[in-house]
Amino acid sequence: MTQAPAPPRTARRRHDREIVSLAVPAFGALVAEPLFVLADSAIVGHLGTGQLAGLGVASALLTTAVSVFVFLAYATTAAVARRVGAGDLPAAIRQGMDGIWLALLLGAGVIAVVLPTAPSLVELFGASDTAAPYATTYLRISAFGIPAMLVVLAATGVLRGLQDTKTPLYVAVAGFVANGVLNVALVYGAGLGIAGSAWGTVIAQWGMAAVYLVVVVRGARSHGASLRPDVAGIRASAQAGTPLLVRTLSLRAILMIATGVAARLGDADIAAHQIVLSLWSLLAFALDAIAIAGQAIIGRYLGADDPQGARDVCRRMMQWGVVVGLLLGTLVVVARPAFLPLFTSDSAVKDAALHALLVVALSQPICGVVFVLDGVLMGAGDGPYLAWAMLLTLAVFTPVALLVPTVGGGLTALWAAMTLMMTVRMLTLWLRARSGRWLVTGATR
């Protein structure tokens, strides 16, 4: 006898509980991550301007290198969640181990590239003669932490797929505290300067990776899943992640083009752009938390052969995205006058940012839908479509953004172009969600 469907209100409440239980801890973990760089900056800043500038260059390089491989979390979450939905926990953990092995291989490859090329990379990013030695030192030491960072990404994906976002939050908070303590001890206590900051962060990162590995290995043993590397499984993880890599690189290209255009507008505009972009990125954490919940929940429903459940929770999360977007947009409008003086006293910079922030505020409901549907399609394993959609978005955004210095409108026009970019993403993702072609059920896609 089939079970009667839950009443609409009861189903919505169940979906809301699932979304909140996954999204809130995920938001905490996302916010904790950039605090690593913030803590390093606060500690290194007291060593001198050259050291702080060097840290800034090296951190930008490291952040770029690691963010390129964020697919390790996304693809692993979707694959593991499908197997959880299918009721096959050993296969779910086995899939997660494949992602972790892939992370270690990629991390080793990044080390092999970064160590010999560190001076050239620092020079490419425009470090001054004073900052370059410090940036090179920090980059070379921090490279040894990259495999750990990638393992953390993959293992976070495993736990998210297992519907656990609390453990990543606890690990992120513990890692942040350990990073701060180690940095102070090594930079000042041991007198190692910027090298001490790098070693402190590397140790904290490997500590986080070790905790994740203990959790995953314990789960593997309790369910009889193999821990050995499986070539076919690792290859499958890489193939699933490749479209998401294309998506991520396209998004990074959009952000780089926007920054390049802002630089051509003048010093006040590029300074204002950095402030606006920082706030835009902060707002994205709240929306990305809902997307992470979407990845885990959608994958589980599809793995359980429940396409209607996946469609229902997708609809509910879109409502969440719009509401949270409206709240964030309202907050930006209200807080603009108090927010800007925290970053600058230059009236020209504040004027440029003030108008651009209004555009950002108006675009937040659009961003909410984009982040949610991005998470839904990732959870469905619909990576190829996401890659093509982002390439199309890049093709639309690029000429429009490059015309801003010629047409005029300053930073406000540039952020209008950014809003156009998000609107194109929303349309492409909404059309895909509406088509139902992403509703592919089963333990594997």
Give a description of the structure:
One of its GO terms (molecular function) is xenobiotic transmembrane transporter activity. InterPro entries: DinF-like, MATE_fam, MdtK-like. One of its GO terms (cellular component) is plasma membrane. The chain has helices at residues 8-44, 49-67, 71-85, 89-124, 132-142, 146-161, 166-189, 194-222, 231-265, 267-303, 307-339, 347-379, 383-407, 410-435. It contains 14 helices and no strands. The protein is 84% helix and 0% strand. The model is unreliable at 1-7 (pLDDT under 50). α3 (71-85) packs parallel to α10 (267-303). It has two domains: 21-229, no CATH class; 240-444, no CATH class. By secondary structure, it is mainly alpha-helical.
